[in-house]
Design a protein that fits this description.
Shape: elongated
Structural class: alpha/beta
Strand order of the largest sheet: 4-5-6-7-11-12-15
Order of helices and strands: EHHHHHEEHHEEEHEHEEEEHEEEEHH
Number of strands: 15
Largest sheet: 7 strands, mixed
Distance between the termini: 17 Å
Number of helices: 12
Helix content: 25-40%
């Protein structure tokens, strides 16, 4: 059987109630943090270049969730960063100059969830994918999808010539519907296996990642852990809370699955890979993901610029941080020889593995 169809008068009952529980707790904690942070930044820091830089440094120092982890992983010393960047600001500098100093300071965190939003630019740190081969080609993807593929709420899918289903899911930006997933999995039911290509999926809604992953398990599974900040200290965290994923009460896939990844897989897409690695019929093929394992939260500087940063760390089922990505089960990238022949090395490797297994 390719799938299991369950008729349930409450189609969302099989969704992740445990996820919604910890998400509610997380939201409450973040609301408290937002109130506290806003009061401190607005009341104590003046709207001057040095005041804004100090406010930014303190927001990260008190609210960012990976300072201790990144000190151990990459040798980050946030106090040393302060000492190095604070002399670079002065009252006569322009907003653009101040922005450049702040952007450079935040880049020390090596976190794609950390940004400054202004009317003239966006500070970002994208080395998690820009410093690596993309290992995906739009030209090749068009060849595999052809012109008669189906489209549904961000998903493009078809049956390949070896009777393996292929799903291209490039973004979790939109909320995915139960009907979208039911129709897609039902149409691909005759296939002997399934490829889910999320290469360069930069994330979006974690609920969409949860809903999709819930279609590939028949039992509730521990898929990870989450913490939240409980104070301003760099190690002030709650106990780890379990992330448990329940199987969907709707159409579920029962055959083999290969999830294709590259360095562009980030945030909610990184979480999707984390969930799928917990399922016995799933293999991960491609490159290491880009990571992004902190739930993002926003604050504001005295001058009105918005700041986004990672506020709550998430871990895999072994309590390992996935901030710097998840390794595939089978590491493979595009090769020039295959590209010349019009072949996607990652897709072709997944096809061989699904057939051989």
């Amino acid at each position: 059987m390719a799938l299991t169809i369950l008729n349930d008068p409450q189609p969302h009952r099989g969704m992740t109630k445990t996820f919604h529980h910890w998400a509610g707790l997380l939201l409450a904690c973040l609301c408290i943090a937002a109130t506290t942070t806003a009061c401190i930044d607005e009341e104590e820091m003046p709207d001057t270049p040095s005041g804004n830089l100090e406010a930014l440094w303190r927001i990260i120092d008190e609210r960012y969730c990976f300072l201790d982890y990144k000190q151990k992983a990459i040798g980050l010393d946030w106090d040393e960063v302060h000492a190095r960047y604070s002399p670079q600001v002065h009252d006569g500098m322009t907003d653009i100059q101040l922005f450049e100093v702040m952007r450079n300071m935040l880049s020390e965190l090596r976190d794609g969830h950390v940004n400054i939003y202004t009317s003239f630019n966006l500070a970002r740190e994208w080395s998690w994918h820009e410093d690596y081969p993309s290992n995906v080609s739009d030209t090749l993807l068009r060849r595999y999808l052809g012109t008669d593929y189906r489209m549904s709420n961000g998903m493009s899918y078809r049956v390949l010539d070896d009777n393996i289903g292929y799903v291209r899911y490039a973004s979790f930006a939109n909320e995915i519907g139960t009907g979208n997933l039911d129709d897609m999995l039902t149409s691909l039911a005759p296939c002997r296996a399934l490829i889910i290509d999320i290469r360069s999926n930069g994330g979006g809604l974690i609920t969409s990642a949860e809903k999709f992953a819930a279609r590939f398990t028949n039992e509730e599974r521990l898929v990870g852990y989450i913490q939240h900040k409980t104070g301003k200290g760099r190690n002030d965290f709650s106990e780890m809370q379990e992330q448990r994923l329940k199987p969907s009460s709707d159409v579920r896939w029962q055959k083999k699955v290969a999830v294709l990844t590259n360095r562009g897989v980030f945030s909610a897409a990184n979480e999707f890979v984390k969930y799928m690695k917990c399922f016995p019929n799933v293999i991960i093929v491609g490159d290491r993901t880009g990571g992004g394992a902190g739930v993002p939260f926003s604050s504001q500087l005295p001058n009105g610029w918005s700041i986004r940063f990672s506020a709550c760390p998430m871990y895999d089922r072994d309590k390992q941080c996935t901030e710097f990505g998840i390794a595939p089960d089978y590491a493979v990238g595009l090769t020039d020889a295959d590209f010349t022949r019009g072949l996607d090395t990652v897709i072709e490797t997944a096809r061989r593995l699904l057939v051989s297994k």
